[in-house]
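quick q for whoever's on today - can somebody do inverse folding on this one?? i tried earlier but teh output was garbage lol. tokens:
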């Protein structure tokens, strides 16, 4: 069924994008306007139920959020910082209770007290002057440390129109096969979590047959605690766009889609400005620089759904379908957006590509560890003395990141949740055993993921933290598969009952639930949640023993 809907959505394609129409409908009249829903369904040859189920899924489109004016961040970085109760309290002095909703995560993990108002994000000291925020209706300037330790690949001087043009001129002196060979030599692993080789995806998309091909940048990986994507989109936008264009040149795709999460309004604005700048300079469009290669960009503004960070859910979202995870195979390289061959990679992965093309795959391959090549951006939350984003070579000791770059902690911390809500929950006692690489984390039963670091303070109950993780996944689950949809809800219910009464969770029951989710879920949302929970049960068993029999 969804395959047929993909074809139907593809009839109008990106120019008359169904997902954007649904966003415009919700903004204008809400999701309860059945006459409008019926008309959109008719125009796109789809059922009314399909349209409504899509509208009601997203945080910013669902009926109950229609009149919301502000959203408070409920990500685990802000949760651990303990700032959000006051943030909501201050907002209620100027807004009605029903005008305030919740979002996760706004990417303001470096200073917390994060909230969204009138198309902009705010954090830190902004909460002390809500009156000015509401009166000015403009974004305030934020600051955080950005520093590279060792080779700078992603933190080089930002590209401008002149250097972008030079890169293109050099690019067109090489064939797509030559550039693909360099990326394969580099052994660039995807920076979204699993480290899957980009060269393999490129080659598969290049060889796939299709009337059209697409390159999609997944800028909706909203791991709470990770704001490295924001850094790249806002401070290195042309580097990301150039990486996508190069991928299009290799694969034969002529369209790049940048899908940016709703919670990053400033990122959306800057990418839009960058695309317009390139178009005005004739660096996009037909026959770029007389090369015979044509490429254009389409910016898609997401509407609030963490699961859209999963590549197949993201593709369904762009098509205007309910963003449910697709069964694989077929993989996006063979059957992706509108059922056409599609390359999907995240922001940081694309941002690495210009360096490889300029310096060569062998140079990139010499940087990093034996299995993880290149560098990694690491996001440090507000518990660090020098909070910010750091670029380190793969293989850099975790202790170096924490002590030398982050300057240690402002207060006592007992664990670090690294790699987002589905990443590894690392007790502080184990930081000497890890380095920033995919293999190091995997060998120790953790997951590097985005390499974001959320600090769990000594006085924050671990039972409350893992309950929050279950609640987060239950809210964000697409509902496609039973293990994730039911398992996350049942897990939250068990933990809630244990914390609010004398009930103790049966250890075998809880273990069975985690195994079912890990083995039976279709994507990393359901499969990934058991990892940090198991880490907590292993390393904080003494703290949790009162809740489990």
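ok took a stab at it. sequence:
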């Amino acid at each position: 069924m969804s395959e047929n809907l993909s074809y139907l959505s593809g009839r109008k394609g990106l120019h008359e994008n169904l997902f954007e129409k649904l966003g415009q409908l919700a903004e204008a009249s809400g999701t309860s306007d059945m006459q409008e829903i019926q008309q959109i369904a008719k125009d796109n040859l789809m059922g009314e139920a399909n349209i409504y189920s899509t509208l009601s899924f997203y945080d910013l489109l669902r009926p109950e959020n229609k009149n919301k004016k502000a959203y408070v961040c409920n990500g685990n970085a802000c949760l651990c910082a303990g700032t959000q109760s006051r943030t909501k309290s201050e907002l209620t002095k100027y807004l009605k209770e029903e005008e305030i909703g919740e979002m996760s995560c706004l990417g303001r993990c470096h200073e917390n007290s994060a909230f969204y108002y009138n198309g902009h994000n705010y954090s830190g000291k902004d909460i002390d002057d809500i009156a000015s925020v509401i009166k000015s209706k403009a974004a305030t300037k934020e600051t955080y440390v950005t520093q590279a330790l060792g080779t700078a690949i992603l933190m080089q001087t930002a590209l401008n129109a002149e250097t972008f043009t030079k890169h293109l001129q050099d690019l067109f002196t090489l064939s797509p096969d030559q550039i693909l060979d360099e990326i394969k030599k580099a052994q660039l692993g995807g920076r979204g979590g699993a480290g899957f080789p980009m060269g393999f995806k490129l080659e598969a998309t290049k060889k796939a047959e299709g009337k059209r091909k697409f390159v999609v940048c997944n800028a909706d990986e909203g791991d709470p605690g990770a704001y490295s994507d924001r850094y790249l989109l806002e401070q290195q936008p042309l580097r990301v766009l150039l990486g996508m264009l190069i991928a299009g040149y290799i694969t034969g795709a002529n369209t790049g889609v940048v899908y940016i999460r709703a919670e990053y309004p400033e990122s959306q604005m800057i990418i839009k400005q960058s695309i317009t700048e390139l178009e005005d300079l004739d660096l996009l469009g037909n026959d770029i620089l007389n090369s015979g290669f044509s490429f254009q960009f389409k910016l898609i503004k997401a509407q609030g759904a963490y699961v859209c960070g999963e590549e197949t859910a993201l593709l369904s979202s762009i098509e205007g379908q309910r963003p449910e995870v697709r069964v694989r195979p077929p993989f996006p390289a063979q059957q992706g957006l509108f059922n056409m061959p599609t390359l999907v990679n995240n922001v940081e992965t694309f941002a690495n590509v210009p360096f490889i093309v300029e310096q060569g795959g062998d140079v990139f391959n010499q940087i990093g560890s034996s299995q993880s090549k290149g560098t990694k951006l690491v996001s440090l939350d507000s518990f660090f003395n020098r909070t910010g984003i750091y670029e380190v070579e793969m293989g850099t000791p975790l202790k170096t990141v924490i002590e030398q770059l982050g300057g240690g902690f402002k207060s006592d911390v007992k664990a670090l949740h690294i790699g987002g809500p589905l990443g590894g929950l690392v007790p502080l006692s184990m930081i000497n055993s890890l380095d920033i690489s995919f293999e190091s984390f995997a060998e120790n039963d953790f997951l590097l993921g985005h390499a974001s670091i959320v600090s769990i303070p000594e006085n924050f109950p671990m039972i409350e933290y893992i309950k929050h993780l279950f609640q987060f996944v239950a809210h964000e689950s697409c509902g496609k598969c039973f293990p994730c949809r039911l398992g996350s809800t049942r897990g939250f219910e068990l933990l809630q009952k244990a914390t609010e009464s004398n009930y103790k969770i049966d250890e075998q029951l809880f273990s069975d639930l985690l195994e079912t989710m890990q083995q039976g879920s279709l994507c990393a949302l359901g499969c990934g949640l058991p990892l940090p929970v198991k880490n907590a049960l292993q390393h904080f068993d003494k703290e949790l023993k009162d809740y489990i029999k």
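fwiw The mean pLDDT is 93. also The chain has 24 helices and 14 strands. so keep that in mind when u check it
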